[in-house]
Specification:
Order of helices and strands: EHEHEHEEHEHEHEHEEHHH
Number of strands: 10
Helix content: 25-40%
Structural class: alpha/beta
Radius of gyration: 19 Å
Strand order of the largest sheet: 2-1-3-10-4
Distance between the termini: 8 Å
């Protein structure tokens, strides 16, 4: 059981992204068979949604299709991530993860891989804020009403998380500490199952990223109450920000790194990176609709992995300050 203190008021993942461009001196690499893309989270979560938006365009740019596999298991996708860490460094097995890449090492005492040194950075697709959603049966139509309900009934309500160390889990911890409210965080095996728990009222609320929540919100199956960001999202323009709702310290964002096994040849990494960049440019409107923002700033694998390292160090500092220890 994770221990905590009510003292977490900073975001774990402040944004970045873009993808490493091919080095001019490197010869072009063209794959001659399909590329396996491992998503270490369940179908229906934000990482899964964003990857599938880009998959066809990435495949077209490379001349070979992407074969997507959702490999869940372990805290925050340890099984799928470890699979890629130990895969052949030939470009034919890559990882699309969430910000759990940097969070999990702060929560798991015996990691089966090194989250930085066992990977080469292809890029980061983008970042998106989290949103608090509730089952429509919950008698709270605003964020203020939700906080009042949680304070009136401490420990009574459940928040569905995508697993220990997932971005949803962290967003829930940030909410709990910054608002100084008490609720149960129930771990499910991925973002998709956690959303299903809210839809069935098995859990009354969750803190998914916007890409994962967009479809159910549009269908009216879940009610969005607040976005954990400083600015409103074009994907949910009518939903207030945490600052507008009176809790400006509640900020939580997810980001989506694309990684290859360490020692993958630079020319291969560059070709993969260029293909993802092309796909992002072609699908910018769709990503914007999902509230995924693409930002410039990283052009090398070293810069991508430097960002992962910085966020991992920040995760450790914030979670330790909150009293959370690795298990």
């Amino acid at each position: 059981m994770l221990k905590r203190r009510a003292a977490l008021a900073a975001p774990l993942a402040l944004a970045m992204p873009t993808l490493a461009m091919p080095a001019l001196a490197q010869p072009a690499w063209r794959p001659d068979r399909p590329i396996r893309v491992i998503i270490p989270h369940a179908p229906g979560g934000g990482t899964d949604v964003v990857t599938r938006v880009l998959a066809e365009a990435v495949g077209n740019a490379l001349g070979q299709p992407l074969v997507i596999e959702n490999r869940t298991g372990g805290a925050a996708g340890l099984v799928g991530t470890d699979l890629v860490a130990k895969a052949a460094p030939d470009g034919y097995t890559i990882l699309v993860n969430s910000s759990a890449q940097a969070i999990t090492p702060a929560l798991v005492a015996r990691m089966p891989y090194d989250a930085v040194n066992d990977f080469a950075g292809i890029g980061i697709i983008g970042f998106a804020p989290h949103v608090v959603v509730v089952n429509p049966q919950l008698p709270a139509r605003t964020f203020q009403e939700l906080l009042a309900l949680l304070r009136a009934h401490p420990g009574r309500y459940n928040l569905a998380s995508g697993g220990i160390g997932s971005a949803i889990h962290l967003a829930g911890e940030i909410l709990r500490a910054s608002a100084q409210v008490d609720f149960q965080i129930v771990q499910y095996r991925g973002g998709g199952p956690s959303m299903l728990a809210v839809l069935s009222n098995e859990a009354q609320m969750s803190t998914p990223d916007i890409p994962a929540a967009t479809a159910v919100v549009r269908a009216g199956s879940a009610r969005p109450l607040v976005i954990a960001a400083a600015e409103r999202s074009p994907a949910m323009p009518d939903v207030p920000t945490s600052a507008e709702a009176g809790l400006p310290q509640f900020i939580a964002e997810i980001w989506f790194p694309v990684l290859a096994p360490a020692r993958t040849p630079p020319a291969v990494v560059a070709a993969l990176s260029a293909a993802f960049q092309t796909a992002i440019e072609q699908n910018k409107r769709r990503l914007t609709e999902l509230a995924v923002q693409v930002r410039p700033g990283f052009t090398t694998s070293e810069q991508v992995m430097g960002y992962v390292r910085a966020q991992m160090e920040r995760s450790v500092a914030l979670l330790r300050a909150a009293g959370v220890q690795p298990e």
